[in-house]
Amino acid sequence: MSSTYAETYAASSLDPERFWLDAAASLAWDKEPTRAIDDSRAPIYAWYPDGMLNVSFNALDRHVLAGRGETTALVYDSAVLGIQRRFSYSELLDRVATFAGVLRSQGVGQGDRVLIYLPMIPQAHIAMLACARIGAVHSVVFGGFAPKELAARIDDATPKVIVTATGGIEPTRRVEYLPAIADAMEQSAHHVPTVIVAHRDGFAHERSQYAGGDTDWHDWDELASAAQPVDAVPVASTHPLYILYTSGTTGSPKGVVRDSGGYAVAMDWSMRNIYGVRQGDTMLTASDVGWVVGHSYIVYGPLIAGAATVLYEGKPVGTPDAGAFWRLIDDHKVDVFFTAPTALRAIRKADPDAKLLGGHDTGSLKALFVAGERLDPDTYGWACEKLGVPVVDNWWQTETGWPIASNPVGLELLERKAGSPTVPVPGYRVEIVDGFGSGVPAGEEGNIVIKLPLPPGTLATLWGNDERFIDTYLSQFPGYYTTGDSGYLDADGYLFVMGRTDDVINVAGHRLSTGAMEQVLGAHQAVAECAVIGVADELKGQRPCGYVVLKSGAEITEEALCRELASMVREHIGPVADFREVRIVEALPKTRSGKILRKTMRQIADGKAYSVPSTIEDPSVIDALIPLLRPTA
Ligand code: COA
Ligand code: AMP
């Protein structure tokens, strides 16, 4: 019998132990868990402490053993190459088992880390699932990050192997990966013994150019042709499946650790109850495997559910036009489509009347989900009107791995309110508190916090750093996880997420640290001090803008400084930061103890009522900045 959202949410809150043990029953366990929550190390919780399973087995073997080996698991659609390729569950399983054998042959065992730096090609799925198969811990790094960011991740995760390709294809250029890997390895203190390279035609660099150092560079296909397939290895539910780095407020990225059992349950449960995707359905998630959305809903979620997943190598616009998504839905008869609001804005800008929709049959589509940033009411209205299916905003973070708030379409489609990702998902007890941790009335904005324990599938800790995990997320409001977002719950219990409370910004759905950009700017010889804040951008949601005070005597024009700083950010963080705006200012607003008032600057730039702390050193600095921060003011 199906339950309503209200009944399901109540059941998850009243008896989480029972609720999540029941949810675990639909997976294949090597040892069934008898307990759901382990609170013995609270505030750090673990899920299914006595259970054992293998996530790759649940994503592949389970479906093949059930006689569904010939159904489609993966559709690779490359708009940049103009090719499509289908993999059945049996075929994908073969590839994964063989690549697991490759990893084994390179000395990778349970618990060893494998860094994956791949574009949107099937090898990404294969490498991730092969790691899971032998209990190795993968860490996928997004291809748009620069070698320095890659080096930071190599040093933190200390991988035994890097799996990569000769390059990725952007609409306007080919991005060579091998020089970036070599550069990153040069910059990192940790030595990586082995690099495995998937060859793609049309790239200048080949692995053979890098032979001769103390790292072995191998060809994927050569190793695979000699490898023995490997069976799935049962691991403890608490065994780490992957590390995914995300930006925090400082320059050093945080390695979010995902467990195996809790995550598998969360994927299985959310596919059915949130996304309404079932065996045999097709899901298209147009994100990147380097982001959390890609991990959960391009790779693990759809495969655990026994659905087909579309792996799209291309962009929403320009490959070749703003009809790319509609073509994908038509070609692959997509049931559920997931993208970022910025992608919809890009399509709308290029094709405001969605004329390109007319050339495609999108009748298979049941719902469109969006996440990664706030879905503005304007874009929401446009998508609803043009697509004629429910458009569902869902709010979550790399840390949580799956939605905190959503319209639970699989359970029931609730009334939608523009600007709101609807209601807390079962398992997440969401509250709004003021700076002292006291609850605020409905309708009033405050810090969004979640009562511990978080549900299964959420971050287990930060890689090798329980202390940073507790300090960053669990200390500010004891008993709660601090999301870093602010917002409010309305009288009907609908959540509205309004923005970050810290220095994290979101550029075209990419989460970036302004602190990391400030570090880069600060290294320029003419820069005395600086602040980077996110300013509103019509297309990308936010874009970074640097406010710089020059060293006395420094002679450089704003234009030249901007050019140099933009290229430094590109080199040190990566092109995705899209840093191209700099203002030279006389002074930055500070407290008497020297802290830059970034929050006040952000509030002014966002056109909000701004607060100036009484400890400000010189209030006139703010007055001078207002015309620069808010040019139309
Ligand atoms: N490898 C190498 N470079 C990459 C890259 C990758 N995987 N992804 C992006 N870049 C580069 C781009 O080539 C571009 O470089 P350029 O400055 O030389 O042109 C730069 O990073 C910025 O790229 P992008 O963020 O894609 O911006 P854009 O202006 O080219 O395109 C959008 C705008 C809106 C179409 C695009 O940002 C987009 O598709 N966003 C959706 C993002 C998304 O799905 N996020 C996941 C959240 S769930
Ligand atoms: P990431 O970890 O990259 O997924 O980024 C998470 C952050 O993106 C969140 O903390 C929010 O600030 C923002 N975000 C993601 N999805 C939404 C959404 N649906 N509505 C509002 N903000 C969102």
From TrEMBL:
Organism of derivation: Paeniglutamicibacter kerguelensis
Classification via Pfam families: ACAS_N, AMP-binding, AMP-binding_C
Domain Acetyl-coenzyme A synthetase N-terminal: 5-59
NCBIfam families: PRK00174.1
Alphabetic keyword roster: Ligase
UniProt entry tagged with the keyword Oxidoreductase: no
Family: Belongs to the ATP-dependent AMP-binding enzyme family.
One GO MF term: propionate-CoA ligase activity
Protein's name according to its UniProt entry: Propionyl-CoA synthetase
Enzyme Commission number(s): 6.2.1.17
AMP-binding enzyme C-terminal domain: residues covered: 517-595
AMP-dependent synthetase/ligase domain boundaries: 66-452
